[in-house]
Write a structure and sequence with these properties.
Length: 252
């Protein structure tokens, strides 16, 4: 399961990204799609090259601080989560479906443009439910003018579902007055027609949302972790965000 790109290209893409190359330049250099490069280097730290971008592309101090805090929390999260336990994986998938999955009808339907989320969902579905692979279906929602063949192959690699099980794609006509940017590979709908599995997933999401495990001390800790303490009475210019990580010893 997962993306099975060419090993040499993946390694080279990661090396170039670490040197500060932008995605489009790496894709051009390796003669692969930009979206493939994005998948290969998503966990490689990236610092834009000042020489290439020039002074006009410098980040505003607030933006720099935001990116730094996000990276700090990402590293902290990796340290705290480590390798997901079975229960953590089960809960994470239920939460993901609660936010992005269909709650009606007789089929499991998960739609998203983010390949990491789609890959996570497919792994979760296969791990906790008895899935008949031949009944999995995929449908791509893609703007006209974009490469449908490349998009379907991309999602086939992400989902590990053969293209023979792809349904008729939906080609959207872009409205320039509403949206200028488009997802290169569109939005994908992964479906599994099984009412019993859907009921099982909905039961898990309800159990998760009705759980009292996040109440009391755990709820307070979660709030303090997610929300930084702000110095000052309002988020006016000059207010300093103080990011403080909560340790297990403090919770105890």
């Amino acid at each position: 399961m997962g993306y099975r790109g060419k090993v040499r290209e993946q390694e080279e893409a990661r090396r170039l990204r670490a040197q500060g190359w932008i995605l489009s330049r790496i894709a051009e250099e390796l003669r692969v799609s930009k979206s493939s490069v994005s998948l290969w280097v998503r966990d490689v730290p990236f610092t834009p090259s000042k020489r290439r971008y020039g002074p006009q592309a410098r980040y505003h101090p607030w933006q720099t601080r935001k990116l730094r805090e996000i990276e700090e929390m990402r590293e902290w999260g990796l340290d705290q989560l480590g390798r997901l336990s079975e229960k953590a994986f089960l809960a994470a998938g239920a939460a993901l479906y609660a936010g992005e999955g269909s709650k009606t009808g007789h089929a499991v339907v998960f739609a998203n443009t983010d390949p990491t989320m789609v890959r996570f969902f497919c792994a979760w579905l296969r791990r906790f439910f008895d899935v008949d692979e031949s009944r999995l279906r995929v449908r791509v929602y893609l703007h006209q003018g974009l490469d449908l063949d490349a998009a379907e192959q991309f999602w086939a690699d992400v989902t590990d579902i053969p293209r023979s099980q792809f349904g008729k794609p939906y080609r959207a006509v872009a409205d320039s007055s509403i949206r200028k940017t488009k997802h290169e590979h569109g939005c994908v709908y992964v479906s599994y027609s099984c009412a019993r599995v859907l009921r099982g997933i909905l039961g898990l999401t309800r159990a998760l949302l009705s759980s009292d495990s996040y109440s009391g001390v755990a709820q307070q800790v979660a709030q303090r972790i997610v929300n930084p303490e702000i110095a000052g009475s309002s988020p006016a210019p000059g207010a300093k965000a103080q990011l403080r990580l909560i340790t297990n010893d403090e919770v105890a």
